[in-house]
Every structure is written in structure tokens, then in C-alpha cells.
Write a structure and sequence with these properties.
The protein has about 230 residues and is mainly α. It contains nine helices and no strands.
């Protein structure tokens, strides 16, 4: 009677060992979650860089600006606003944070005309604010040089990231689309409403309103003193 029981136990044990080995191999071969690439330091803190540059600019005494030049730079500011909203209509959520990612390569809308419309709008915003505060003088040169160089550097980082992720698709688009000087070309694609695009950038608009208010506050004593 003992012998059949013993044989039955020996048949059960290999099955149990096979199940254990299967579970162990499943655990060992389970793929680890892909770690997303961290952004470079200046990319991660680009908002802080622009904020510090603005505060340094505001530390200088304001200068008078003739009405014609005032209207010119106000219109540049408005065009930058328009470009940013148009751009935000064709891209997803805001890309603030430590992770650089892109679900797809956007090649329509503003991105059919140039590769970095957001950085161009940022530069236009900054240049208009610099002239509105400092006037037309040699003092604006270092601020404009730093601003334009910084935005161009961010564009290079974007190009590097997109080229690595999308490969030939990015190369074809980059060959046809200039980086910073827009061209007259339009390609249809999915877009959100202008209202949604505006609300998606609420932190940018808040920052912009604060800078404008600081410029006005700095201008009032200057104008009263004159």
C-alpha cells in the first residue's frame, strides 16, 4: 500500500517544481519600466532663467520711449501672444517638469512654418519688454543677446531630442521646415480651440502680467520725476 502512495508523491513534486520554476522565470524576465530621459539643467529651469533675466532688467532705471517705438513694440508683444496661442492649439499639455517627452511629432499648424514657434514667441515677448522698459539704447544689447542665445540653445536641445526619438521622420521635417524664421506654408492637423490653448498657458500669462505690472510700476516714478 505504501508504494503507490510514494509514487504518487513523486509525480506531484515535479509538477509543483515546474510551477515554481515558471513563477520564478516570470518574475526574473519581467521587463522593467522604461526610465524617461531627464531634461538638461537649463531646459528644466528655463522659466527661472527667464525670470532672473527679467528681474535683472528691472533693476536698471527705466527709460523714455517715443510713441512710435512704443506702438511698434506693443504690436510685437501682441504678435508674440498670437503666435503662442496658435502654437498651443496644436500641441498637448504644457511641457514643464523634469521629463522631456513627445507622444508624436507635430508637423502641422505653426509647426509647418517653423520648428520652434514657442521659442520664437518667447524671444519676441522678451525683446518687446526689454525695449518697453529700457527704451532704444545700448543697454538693451546684452539682454537681447542673452535672451536670443538662450532660446536658440533650447531649440537645439529640442532638435536633438526629437531627432533621437523620431529619426528619419524628424530629418525629413527638419529639412523642409526652418528652425526660427517662419515660412508661408500650412498643413492641416488636429487642433484645440483658442480658448483651451489660452487656458493651457495660464502660468505663462500670469508671469507676463506680473512683468508688465512691474514695468508700469517702475515707469510711473520715472515719468512723474520728469
Amino acid at each position: 500500500m505504501d508504494e503507490p502512495i510514494k509514487n504518487q508523491d513523486e509525480q506531484i513534486k515535479p509538477v509543483e517544481n515546474a510551477v515554481e520554476q515558471s513563477e520564478t522565470s516570470t518574475v526574473e524576465t519581467a521587463p522593467l519600466p522604461e526610465e524617461k530621459p531627464k531634461r538638461e539643467f537649463l531646459f528644466r529651469y528655463r522659466g527661472w532663467v527667464l525670470g532672473i533675466l527679467s528681474l535683472v532688467m528691472l533693476a536698471f532705471e527705466p527709460a523714455d520711449l517715443e510713441i512710435i517705438m512704443f506702438l511698434v513694440f506693443i504690436n510685437i508683444f501682441i504678435l508674440a501672444f498670437y503666435m503662442r496661442v496658435k502654437t498651443r492649439r496644436v500641441i498637448g499639455e504644457h511641457t514643464r517638469g523634469d521629463i522631456q517627452e513627445a507622444d508624436q511629432l507635430v508637423t502641422w499648424g505653426a509647426y509647418a512654418r517653423l520648428r520652434h514657434p514657442l521659442y520664437v514667441s518667447n524671444a519676441a515677448f522678451g525683446i518687446s519688454l526689454i525695449f518697453l522698459h529700457l527704451g532704444v539704447s545700448l543697454r538693451v544689447i546684452p539682454f537681447i543677446v542673452v535672451l536670443v542665445a538662450f532660446e536658440a540653445y533650447l531649440g537645439k536641445l529640442d532638435d536633438r531630442f526629437l531627432a533621437k526619438k523620431f529619426g528619419d521622420e524628424w530629418k525629413i521635417w527638419a529639412q523642409q521646415t526652418p528652425a526660427f524664421i517662419p515660412r508661408e506654408f500650412h498643413r492641416e492637423g488636429p487642433m484645440r480651440s483658442a480658448r483651451e490653448a489660452f487656458l493651457a498657458d495660464h502660468f505663462t500669462w500670469l508671469w507676463m502680467v506680473m512683468i508688465l505690472m512691474l514695468i508700469v510700476v517702475r515707469k510711473i516714478p520715472f515719468m512723474l520725476w520728469d
